[in-house]
Please model this.
Amino acid sequence: MPASYAYLGPEGTFTEVALRTLPEAATRELIPYVSVQSALDAVRTGEAEAAFVPIENSVEGGITTTLDELVAGTPLMIYREVLLSITFALLVRPGTQLSDIKTVTAHPAAQPQVRNWLRANLPDVTWESAASNADGARLVQEGRYDAAFAGEFAAARYGLVPLETGIHDAENAQTRFVLVGRPARPAAPTGADKTSVVLWQRDDHPGGLRDLLGEFATRGINLMLLQSRPTGAGIGNYCFCVDAEGHISDRRMAEALMGLKRICLQVRYLGSYPRADVGPDGVRPTPPGTSDAEFVSAADWVARCQDGRF
Model:
């Protein structure tokens, strides 16, 4: 039996399309799950080797369902990321006209990406959320709703037709997907990497977030995502999901994580993995004084001072 990858299903989701861009997907059994939670739980229980789920889109930011699942529960680790350009089609049963549509459905993350189009073309329709865009197409097939926003490629799978295509409010909209597995040694650095962590403050105090961000800033580490998520411990209690440029094996990243471990109540490491947006040639130069060589030189100088060799 081949190893399996779980993904947010059913068949015909943008998630499946993005997953199939990974070369290793051709050697795995790809199993759709009804939700992000169930896909990640399949990894936690050993039913699947890894899960592939959406984590961020360029219109609304972080996908809170995925972030919350990575924040809580048995720790998991991100191994890869994929960026996919997103354009929606309005899928309907054959014979349906625009004037016939009273209800539409899609994944909640789709709504902000088609809101203006809806206002201009279907201002009086009722929106209902689905577990995924493809699941919305399935519900239209079953007659539960009149139309679904999904990828045009999902139409044939569910016996629907694209009434409108190329729907998007924001040009060049993208969704970021991640391959998540059980914790293991991170892959070797590529020179164009990202490190993801979750941070919990010890207490709420003025400048608390500044203290956390300062561990990155003083080492010249650029942040790519910063999103607060409620901890469930009451109003005002938040943790912070962070994506930062660099790999845990980089001296500056390792020192930043050590600093955060000292001052935070808890730090959850979510992995270091290759960036999907740029290669090594596209990474901005590190600020002066923050290269690995300069960290090594500074550490050697301190050692010499301790030995009286300065």
